[in-house]
Protein 1
Amino acid sequence: MTMAAKTDPAIELRKLSKAFGHQVALRGVDLSVAEGEFLTLFGPNGAGKTTLIRIVASLARPTGGSVHVRGEDLGKTATSLRRHIGLISHNPLLYGDLTPDENLRFFARMYGLADAAARIDTVLDQVGLASRRRDPVRTFSRGMVQRLTIARAILHDPAIMLLDEPYTGLDLQAADMLRVVLQELAASKRTVILTTHNLEQGLEMCDRAAILNRGKLAWEGSRSGIDLSAMRDIYREATRIR
Amino acid sequence: MSYLRKISAILWKDIVAELRTKEMFSAMFVFAVLVVVVFTFAFDLRVSGERVRQVAPGALWVAFAFAGVLGLNRAFILEKDRGCLDGLLLAPVDHTAIYFGKMISTVLFMLVVEALMLPVFTAFLGVNLFDLRLILIMILGTIGFAGVGTILSAMTAQTRTREVLLPILLLPVAAPVLIAAVKATAGILDGLTMSEIARWWQLLIAFDLVFPAIAFMTFDFVVKE
């Protein structure tokens, strides 16, 4: 893999579109996220946020346009680029019959991690699950599963984190835990895209925000100088049915 | 080597999960036993040795195929339903490694069930199935069946009617494998030599190579939205 040039954005979407049969999910989205930037993508249900995240994660193929990750075309080099991407969604992507140890060992092997045992210890400590490492995941609460989801996503130390509605279904305690992890991600200068329809949670850590509405980028701008009240007005205006 | 390590990781994960739950294995085994019991009573197989030799190969492979469908139904559908398929697809590995990992685990589970079914068949049908040539045919037939079944399982996992759709698609496509396996098994039970049934086991070998080759070329398109 060639090294990305310094000026290349971490993620660049050009005229990205996606249709599922007659259902159009994305309509020519142009969006760029710089290295180390935290972008929150707001939008109502059905706006195309999850579809966009799935395309950037190389789980779905765009119908038109392109995605460049660290300067490389995702359509051509997806296999190697996936090494740099971590995904947290409301779906845990974990095996309930396996223990956290076994789940992480499996993903460590899939990512070809050299120091898997040490790395597994580190991430389990980070999410506070070291003491439950040998219990089957199916015995865990939703909050614990989401913590393990975070451990799985950061196991291979990805430079890009995609967070698709990560707060969905979490209780207050688990949401606080997730917030701490997100703060650490932001502080570690990873490139982050967070999708949410919760303005307060989304604005908390982002450097920049964008609003997706009915598959189109309706607004994007810097976080600085925008408070929650101003964002509410912007969001209402951008998602207004015309 | 890295590619093989990822295949082995998927195989390891499937075996550990199955050893813990025994869900797939027990369903496949019980179903195969039930098929043999039904066949035994439906055709009154213990009455005539001649009739046993006519019916046994078909009964054997019907039991294996139906048990295999149960196993294949769980190969990708379970991954999809539990939301784990995306986790596999996110890994920095050629997606065909997922196909081969799943195919090998299906072959392994089917072969274990088949090995346990041999004494059951022998007891119910009264024919000795402990023959190395027959075991070879079972291995070849199982690889061919799992080869085509795994790719179809991945395809149908994306649909809403997946449990129904898999056998409807699989059985016609796998028919050449099943026919060749039944004919080769019948030949062995009739006392024919391997060279006399060569065209059947050669056909099995051909399908064992063709289906994975097709999967190798198409799997990425099958699993990505």
Protein 2
Amino acid sequence: MSFQLDARTPSGPLEQRWEKARQEMKLVTPANRRKYTVIVVGSGLAGGSAAATLGELGYNVKCFCFQDSPRRAHSIAAQGGINAAKNYQNDGDSVYRLFYDTVKGGDFRSRESNVYRLAEVSVNIIDQCVAQGVPFAREYGGTLANRSFGGAQVSRTFYARGQTGQQLLLGCYQALERQVDAGRVQMFYRHEMLDLVVIDGRARGIVTRNLVTGAIDCHVADAVVLATGGYGNVFYLSTNAKGSNATAIWRAYKRGAGFGNPCFTQIHPTCIPQSGDYQSKLTLMSESLRNDGRIWVPKQKGETRNPNEIPEEERDYYLERMYPAFGNLCPRDIASRAAKLMCDQGYGVGPGGRGVYLDFKEAIGRLGRKTIEERYGNLFEMYERITGEDPYSVPMRIYPAVHYTMGGLWVDYHLQSTIPGLFVLGEANFSDHGANRLGASALMQGLADGYFIIPYTIGHFLAQVKPGAVAADHPEFLAAQHEIEHRTKRLLSIKGKKTVDDFHRELGKILWEYCGMARNAAGLRHALEKIPELREEFWQNVNVPGSGEELNQSLEKAGRVADFLELGELICLDALEREESCGGHFREEYQTEEGEAKRDDEHFCHVAVWEHAGEGKRPVRHVEPLQFEFVHLAQRSYK
Amino acid sequence: MKIILNIWRQKNSSSPGKMVRYELDKVNEHMSFLEMLDVLNEELTRKGEDPVTFEHDCREGICGCCGFMINGIPHGPERGTTVCQLHMRHFHDGEELWLEPFRAKAFPVIKDLMVDRSAFDRIISAGGYISVNTGSAPEANSLPVKKQCADRAMDAAACIGCGACVAACPNASASLFVSAKIAHLGLLPQGEPERDRRAVRMVLKMTEEGFGYCTNTGECEAICPKGVKIENIAMMHRDFTRAVALFREESKVGGAG
């Protein structure tokens, strides 16, 4: 075994662990910080906050994003909110409760120490964002307002209308631009990371493609931080932005970084259903809508009446029926599976019977249209723009869609991957959310990692290495650069008959069918035959027009899809090997009599960490056992 | 339905561009405008032609990547909508459309419908922030903010930085964009200490980047996909005027110690 999976988790009382770890960390003195160069790839909540904070500390930061501005990162699309254990509502919240809800929501597949730290720093995040001028919703007295989210019985979610991600990202982007102005952060826009360079077992830099000129450049650093988001777009149709991709983490995986729990993907229950084959992406409707919207299907199979004409007694509010304690606010994996179950049984509504109603009639009657407008106005508008239907008068139709990936590169307590000097933040890492993420926790994790964790842990790493000492013409850099140039040439020279999107769509169909909301061994084995065939065909028959020395969006897509075609296989392999159901990973063979996920704590209470074993070789599965010292392992119940 | 597209094709920033005509026969009314362009690009790729370059990412109207002119209107004819959320049901069978990039001196064309909007980042970098290092923030509820102020700040902060306001303005002014940030931060008590400095630095930077002056035409407000209001520009002018009279650069004399 070549991996040393030392999670570096502190021991002792849970609430003292982070403080204890910080006390033991080495520091870099202010005068020495500018001698160290740190590369941050990605400029969303995790990357942007890390780059800004490391710049403030005085490190020499280079930040990369493939978009035209750091403000475009996909964190911007998060709608509903950010959790924090402030207990402003006096409703019984605490750091421990947020920790517990997160561990339970993740179906007991996350690390206790990490999750507790996340809950602990959540309160600092709100302070920081407010100080930056993030316009959170407020009460008439001027204090901050909260709303409820799934998987919690307290109101701990802070929000800025339905644009919380946008506002948090703009706060972090402004902090980043302030450092750009101060000369401590150098921004590289329209640059895509295409490889990681590892020298003597340590991450020493990256190779990028300038998306405007096509130039392949080497960038040297003393540490590399990846904050490149999730890989949900492997499914083709997802709520991710079109450009979101796995290339950075996949390249790092192939250079020796372990990949944790790749099969843990989150299917979000409330998205606008697909309307046709031309569809390019799916649009999420915030989970916050489940605060006031009631989900139902007709009791009659194949119902064709207008929903408003269906009387109360002929409606099945199935979440309220199945999970009375949490009702419409049960966690995402559970709500998604229930929707699929209803549709599979023939109760679905809309085209193809792939949809359920999300109805605001009762809430509008109780609170008035104005209140609903204030709370969800922009979401209702978005729904109307896309579907052409008015949700104030007709119930929304929703269906689950791929939204988030809990899996990602394995990191220890310091957020360092299995490659020393390579740190991974936010959705790109595997930590904190276990097998299912609770709503409003992604923003929390991204900012916790970037503002409050990496500044300490990277300092500890840098304090132990000498700055500089490698040049951009080191043979490893030149080799990586050469490999990329070769790969680009190869992609451009195939000139086959199918487009990149043809392959991507096909891959997405395989994954959605066999590794989506429900999985089984036979289906996964089938997918594991299909995907390599498709990959083979891609490299024989894809058509990538244009050249490599210009702006070429087809080439960008082709490189990303080539990586998805490899990652898709690993996802299925991981899903096949994990012979239990937990959170978003639902294996049909392992369920309770009531159809709930049935965990196998005896055999699978661990993180699966995959090691790349070379081209064409089966990757090696390692495990990091999960120990629960504070939370009792129980079957999740939201009834 | 059938749609005829005349699209501005330009290989790169240094070559001349021209309009090229394309006909699409099977456009579905539920498609978004960008999904229609996806279909066109798939066809062009199959024919071995260069697909049309256009910027896009979230396709939910929030990232601000997308945007071009449709028949002379930034983001097209629907109010309050980015082009990624514009659906074909708003067009009629056989309609002929002209697509061009946003035109402004400060937004050079990169390729086809894609322009360089990095000037916006440089304006924000000049002062569009509140200086507060990570870790130095006070407890969030220790500073109450009037709900009305928070709401108005949020209205201004809704700007997605797409640049449509610049493209719509006869002077290619970035005043709506710049004022949205000045208003967002200036309306909040947290933004007060740097209010003068922010107004001066951002407005001067806007001019330096080659954007024009505001002459109160109001086109920007009319086409803004996020409904950002021209009243922000009034606030910017007031803050700028006041700041020019009052603002002095920070003392150059070092602190004690």
